[in-house]
Amino acid sequence: MRRLAAGLCAPVNIASIANDIGVPQASLKRRVDELREAFVLWPCHREDGLRAKLGAQAKLYFTDPVYASLGDVGFDFTRLSQQQLGMALLRASERASPGAHLEFDHVLYHRTRTRKEIDFVGPGFGGVCIESKYVDGRWRRDALTLRASHWRGIVATRSELDLADSDVVAVPAALLAWLIDT
User: pTM surpassing 0.90?
Assistant: First the structure.
């Protein structure tokens, strides 16, 4: 759990983690599957044409923020914000389509040709992608990845609200999660 918490918000390499902690890869995969089945973890799969690319490395998020504190650094508010925003999106997809959580294809992440990631995309997002950056002032640099995509973008910031641009806007992460959840 501690190793998963340390890699929160990044694609998970099961073989690497198994090697690092000295367990067989099949055992670790089975444990991760058990945590997923117990709704402790949810996998956010890489998208390909807005469909889950199940063979690619998934990002694993905890369903409860308490588990995120198990990492060596305690609560990393940037990662915690991204995790909670993903959970809000997952809950919204579940409300719209009961059972969506088990299909793993409603909340996805995108990898660009330049190997940068956009945190959240999905077939039900209305042509919008979401990038979680728990910062203020420096979010415009991260918006460049969103501008290069074929989606309109939202950057989830710490507290900055900027709706002036029609292609990429900044919204405080807490406000965005609240809007998604309502």
Answer: yes
